[in-house]
Amino acid sequence: MNESPVVAITGASSGLGAAMAARFQTGGCRVVAICRHQPTVAVDHWLPADITLPADRARIVAELQARYGRLDVLVNNAGIGLYDTWEETEEAALRQMFELNFFAVCLLTQACLPALRASRGTIINTASVAGKLPVACMGGYCATKYALTAYSDTLRQELAPSGIQVVNLVVGRISTGFTSRSLGGRRAPSTPDVGRATPAGLADAAWRAWRHRRRQAIYPGWYRLVLLFARWWPGLWDAANRRKWRLDRPPAEQPPR
């Protein structure tokens, strides 16, 4: 009987999810990619699904049980961004983002808890530095990731007696095509490639957090300095955001969306 850990990863078709799938696969795990499109990396099983749909979530749990009879790690990675001011944000886009970034995570995790209790497994939630500090023109996205961070931290408290590990994965800016797939009408300002952050590096951070049973992993690590800066000098952080997004100009002089 194959006793290798079973790892289910949502949003594993490309980007960070694909990188984590490859890393866990290399580490000897059996990886199940849960995503709408075929993964770009080799996995043990591709389970096509839309995790915002109740029927698909039920099918995911049933198929994991039927195929493997266990689940050791659930990586909640699927998500989408939104670039707009709060004034510009459309209700439909905001609700779509919350459904995927937050509600689907909560409900899929809830459905997987019996299997994770049996294995004393791990839940890894892909959050963001945007869930630790405010970013102008990304308020809706920040709200989903702040909520996800709170979810991880409270879930950890509740599941500790069951031996389930909960990891909050705090991700900084990494080139994955995330911006081009985001909702909203604004274009994100160009940001220098500092520190050579890569999807593979993030995948290594997630792997280490699992293996060493850490509560949180921040990648790239230099974002710790950004978080400290925003905490100690919030006024300077706010001003830098306004300049970055050109919000300090009168509305008539702001660049078109």
**End-to-end separation:** 56 Å
SSE arrangement, N to C? EHEEHEHEHEHHEHH
**What shape does the CA trace take?**
globular
What CATH calls the topology is: Rossmann fold
Tell me about the largest β-sheet: 7 strands, parallel
List keywords for this structure.
single chain, 257 residues, alpha/beta, Rossmann fold, 7-stranded parallel beta sheet, 8 helices, 7 strands, 44% helix, globular
Describe the structure in brief.
The chain is α/β, with parallel strands linked by helices. The chain contains eight helices and seven strands.
Q: Can you walk through the features of this model?
A:
The chain contains eight helices and seven strands, in the order E-H-E-E-H-E-H-E-H-E-H-H-E-H-H. It has helices at 15-26, 54-67, 91-119, 139-159, 178-181, 199-211, 223-232, 234-244, and strands at 6-10, 30-35, 45-48, 73-76, 122-126, 165-171, 216-219. The chain has a seven-stranded parallel β-sheet, sandwiched between helices. Helix 1 packs across helix 6, helix 2 runs parallel beside helix 3 and helix 7 packs across helix 8 (234-244). It is globular.
